[in-house]
Amino acid sequence: MNDLESDQSTNNQTMKYFIDAVGQKIKHLILSNADDRSNISSLTESEVAILEQIIDRLCIRCVNNNTTRREVTPIRHINQVDTWDCGLACIQMVINWLNNNCNATQEEQEEQRRWMMDFVKAKSLWTIDLITLLQNMLDLNSNNNSTYLFCSNRFGIDESYNNLHYYKDAFSEDEIRVKRLFDKAEQQNLPLLQVSHMSFNVLIDLVSRENVVAIVLLDNTIFNQQNNTSNAKTASNIHDQSDLSYSGHYVVLCGVSRDKNDINIATMNSQTDDSETYSYCLVIKNPGIWKETQFVTPSLFEASWRAKGTDEDIILVAKHV
């Protein structure tokens, strides 16, 4: 085998593993020394650029000319019960999807929710709480055939968040718990990937794939200010939104749609002033509204995701069938 053939073989193998698993395999492929834990705790900007190049040059692109196609993973919608438990509802949706349990009864869902509440033992939930819960629930399933990856631009506590009303009331208590959970996650070698700035195209490319979804933390204040859809229960924790400051809310991003009707719905619901014409919209399961499916413009979703307070948190989950 000559050098060119060897390089092509290596590239093809890299693409195969990248497509097959959204989890620690990504990190092991991108970084040169995958056995050194210190090397996989974070990605530099140059390494993020490598990740984007892999997606751009080797993976199937999500852009296509089929204007009626929906690239959406089917997930059963579950509503949050209180103003703080949107994250639990998202975990429920994902777990039921992974377990092919789309016909769970109301009683079964309520029992599952009570178990989850007993496990997390808090109402001011951070993404690391959800990761710990998700890992525990996956461990209980001997037939688990999934991978996940928690991506964020910060792992730990940003002390400046103590000034945000959303975090302030429980910040001291949260700080102790969150630090402990991150330490435990590090010890257990859970799949965490720190990315200084994930390209929006990377996210869209991933969730456009079959059987890949993402639990995403949004600023609900931005999302609701610019979105006409009624969101009665999405205060998303015990905090008041009256000061129009940051308010965290978890949703499940399950794909994109290029259907013109879906795009029109997303555009009409958005109150942004831009006159941009979109070729696709995002398809989400929002636990804070009763609508089974919500369509959102890319600009609204990205603005809500990148807001201060979210750390651009994403939990990517892949189901292998």
Write a short abstract of this structure.
With 321 residues, the chain is of the alpha+beta class. It is built from 12 helices and 9 strands. The model is unreliable at 4-44, 53-68 and 234-243 (pLDDT under 50).
Can you describe this structure?
This is Guanylate cyclase. The chain is α+β, with helices and mostly antiparallel strands and 321 residues long. It has one domain. 41% of the residues lie in helices and 15% in strands. It has helices at residues 3-20, 24-30, 45-58, 86-98, 106-120, 127-139, 165-168, 171-187, 200-207, 220-225, 260-269, 298-305; strands spanning 42-43, 70-72, 146-152, 192-195, 212-219, 248-257, 281-285, 294-296, 314-319. Strands 1, 2, 3, 4, 5, 6, 7, 8 and 9 form a nine-stranded mixed β-sheet that branches. Helix 4 runs parallel beside helix 6. The two termini are 33 Å apart.
Mean pLDDT, all residues: 75
Percentage of helical residues? Answer: 40-55%
Low-confidence segments, given as residue ranges, are 4-44, 53-68, 234-243
What is the overall shape? globular
SSE string: HHEHEHHHEHHEHEHEHEEHE
What are the SSEs and their pairings?
Layout: H1 3-20, H2 24-30, E1 42-43, H3 45-58, E2 70-72, H4 86-98, H5 106-120, H6 127-139, E3 146-152, H7 165-168, H8 171-187, E4 192-195, H9 200-207, E5 212-219, H10 220-225, E6 248-257, H11 260-269, E7 281-285, E8 294-296, H12 298-305, E9 314-319
Parallel strand pairs: 1-4, 3-4
Antiparallel strand pairs: 2-6, 3-9, 5-6, 5-9, 6-7, 7-8
Helix pairs in contact: 4-6
InterPro entries: GUCD1 (IPR018616)
GO molecular function: guanylate cyclase activity
EC number: 4.6.1.2
